[in-house]
Amino acid sequence: MYQPRRAGGPAATESHLEEAPEASKPSRRGWHLNAADRIGAAFLGLAVTATAGALAMSGTAVAAPIAAPMTTPDVSGRDAAAVSRDVSRPQIAAEDTLAVAAASKAVKSPTLQPTRTMYAKDKATAVSAPASGASKVASLDAADKVVVTPEVNGKYRMVRVKNRQAWVLNSALSNSKPSPKQVADANAPAAKRKVPKGSVLGLQPEAMVVYRAVMARWNVKNVGGWRAHSLSVHQFGRAIDFMTYSNTSQGYAIRDFLVAHAKEFGVDHIIYRQQIWTPYRPTWRHMADRGSATANHMDHVHVAVKDR
What we know:
alpha+beta; single chain
């Protein structure tokens, strides 16, 4: 006969009493909770994967770029005539014709353009070719401006003189303009003529220094010196008249030479062609008309020196 057991009796504490396993119990959770568990597991897997990728990326300095997938262009829809080499292409043919014509055209030598201005150091000759026997194109005086080009051939440089192309010795040209003294000395002939020793024309020793310097360089036919009845320093033997007459180029050359060496010669004043120059006022000033060409010093250079 069945006897029910008490809840607190010994039978309730027996360990051999078997209970239904937990898995066999029917689930009381709803379907939405089970779905949430599955989605959470999926997100957890993605997070783990992302973390592993970040750790792998941190081990390299630069991530290698992912190459774009290669695709093969579909040419099935193209017009075969558009890509065919057998079809005439007028624009390309015209360009080819122009290219051939340009390649076969003779190339002319470029004309060198003048680049800068230089100055003649001394008297020089511009010639037609860079050779010593070339024909003369023009003569240059000291300080003459010359427009030069970059073309150099040996000792010569190509220049433009009187709107003509010519050649000048490179050593005869300077970047800077010579000083008036350098110009005067360069345009003056070298001292080659013999001059008598001692005093001539009643000139004092200080005037003889000027006389010898000028006469050694220029062949002046007539020279005036001491004159007893002169109102100028001619009466003291300290003035000289170099008669150049109509040879004004010689007169100006002598005049400039005397100015350039005025301190050395002890010049008091110089007069030429109705103009006067003095060391204390070193500019050429006009003089009043004295009535004749000789009185106005149109035909000679007058120089007076100080008593030293």
